[in-house]
Amino acid sequence: MSAPPPPPTLPDLDSGPRSFITTDQDHGGIALTISTLMATWVVLCFFVRIYMRATVSGPFGMDDIVCSIATIFGVIQMIVSSAAVSFGFGKALELLTEAQIDQASKAVYAAQLLYIVTNTLTKCTVALLLARIVFIKSRVYACYGVLAASVVWGVGSFLAEAIRCTGSPPWKTVGSQCSNLFLAWQVITAFNVILEAVLLAVPVWLVWGLQTDLMRKFTVVAVFWLRSPVIVAALIRIHFLGNTIGSPEPLLRGVVPFILLNVEMHYGLMAATMPTLKPFVGAFNTGWGTYDTTGQSGYGQNSSGSYAMQSLDRRSNKSKKAGSKQNSALRSTDRDPPSFSKNITHIRSIPVRDADSPRAQSAESSESQQMIIRQTLTTEVHYEEEEARRRELNSSRGNDSIDYNLHVKQQ
Q1: 28-283, CATH topology level
Q2: Mean of the per-residue pLDDT values for the chain?
Q3: When you count CB atoms within 10 A of the terminal residue's CB, does the N or C end of the chain come out lower?
Q4: How far apart are CA 103 and CA 174, in angstroms?
């Protein structure tokens, strides 16, 4: 009898070529993995946003353009972060040469500047999206105010980080550093958190007075509050950054705040896409100031307390064709027997800017409201199938038996 075959040998997981090996003196692989993974998710979310705009919640707007630019800067930041790791970021100084330390410091400095640019564009994207789904002027202006504040924060933070001090290069992290470096980041983070808190509070303010059920309000607020982890990441980062600045191993100990920086930036971009998804877009279809997935836009209660009704988007040529068909149908009712009618009156509004402009009927270009009364007349004709009933109708009208089945709709 032959001997049984030996059990299969497992491969040695500790052998073979590897790009990075995580040790006590090298954490660069962790930073690279998280940065690349987050950037990949950002790109996937961006494609989802483009698809949703093209098929469900279009058309494309300024918020989509700004989000596209932010995504590009986010990808560039990931590339620069990868270059910093390849130069030696995340390693102990004893493993690096002076040239590698200088290159890694410059790459980290550039990645931090790109983080500020991307974070600013992300805030602008959310502010523009809020302004897009709201049609009350006072609230739109409030969203634009948040947009302007985000731009001011971005410009100020970029300049503060770009011009740290004049005594040494701004990217220098080893040796003599700027004395106010940590203070600058504290101020930048403080205003960053304040702006994020405002972006979380604005949706609550927008839906507070809407005439809709509580679940819809909660859905609208919840999808924008998915940005709340951005605040947590920013605060934790500033805590670890205080332990990194002035450390004898700034490139090694700077991995944790660098990872949190990437998580904050990339997750903020992903959270800016979530409100454009179909389940959340449907929640805006309240008819009282939110987005309508059928292409119509509702309005809320204005400052005077009056309500502007759901807008209509009608083409003049369609109205003419419909009117001609309805007139011919009405003329045919002169010989009809008595009917049972239901009159339903809808009061709706069409914004008017220019009577000759085709966009005068669009709610998104409104400057004023012109009230239009739309009446729907539904006529239901009931007849008896019994021979006696038909003879009675024929004798009363003096003509042949006729079966009627009419449905008249007047607009």
Answers
A1: Rhopdopsin 7-helix transmembrane proteins (1.20.1070)
A2: 73
A3: N
A4: 12
